[in-house]
Amino acid sequence: MRIALFEPEIAGNVGAVLRLGACLGLAVDLIEPLGFAWDDRRVRRTAMDYIDHVEIRRHADFAAFRAATPGRLLLFTTRGSARVHDFSFRPDDILMFGKESGGVPGHVAFAAEARLRLAQRPEVRSFNLATAATLAAGEALRQTGLLPE
Questions:
Q1: Structural domain harbouring 37
Q2: What are residue 95's DSSP bridge partners?
Q3: Is this prediction's pTM over 0.90?
């Protein structure tokens, strides 16, 4: 199982997701362009030394990502048609999250095998990217029996 971030814009969110990946044993794919310089100190400050314990792959664009990354692509979006807790995850799933300011373009959403939403109150817009990734990864790993001890 992997986490993919489509054109992430906030270095601190990427750092938090890298730390999540390290803690849960999930590789993280970054689909460029990034909204910050990769050497941004905020990435390392948030990820801390956990960055040394996660597999990170950077991809020039979405096409390069799909060519290099097999697995069922699942997009997490506020406009998802299925609730995350009603979905059956598999060990080879790719959990994808769009950029903070606008999600993913239509061709990326169309390429996903499922569009999932997290439970939240209707009067708020969305979770923070790292928080959404944590909730989604926790449920996916729980269902597949892959949660670390």
A1: 2-144
A2: 3, 74
A3: yes
Residue 137 domain-assigned (yes or no)? yes
Rounded to the nearest 5°, which phi and psi values hold at 115?
A: -115, 115
Residue 106: closest CA among 83, 145, 79: 79
Tally of domains within the chain:
1
Count Cα atoms within 13 angstroms, Cβ side, for 115: 14
In one-letter notation, the amino acid at residue 77 is T
Considering only CA atoms, which of 47, 46, 2, 52 is closest in space to residue 24? 2
The pLDDT of residue 46 is 75
Two tokens, residue 46:
């948030």
Domain-embedded: residue 149: no
3-state SS assignment for residue 145: coil
Q: Tell me the two tokens of residue 36.
A: 């910050």
Using alpha carbons, select from 103, 95, 98 the residue that is nearest to residue 140.
95
Q: How far apart are CA 88 and CA 140, in angstroms?
A: 8
CATH number of the domain that residue 52 is part of: 3.40.1280.10
pLDDT in tens, 102-148: 999 999 999 999 999 998 888 988 889 999 999 999 999 999 999 99
Kindly list the distances between the CA atom of residue 126 and the CA atoms of 22, 90, 100, 130, in Å, as whole numbers in the listed order.
Answer: 24, 25, 10, 11
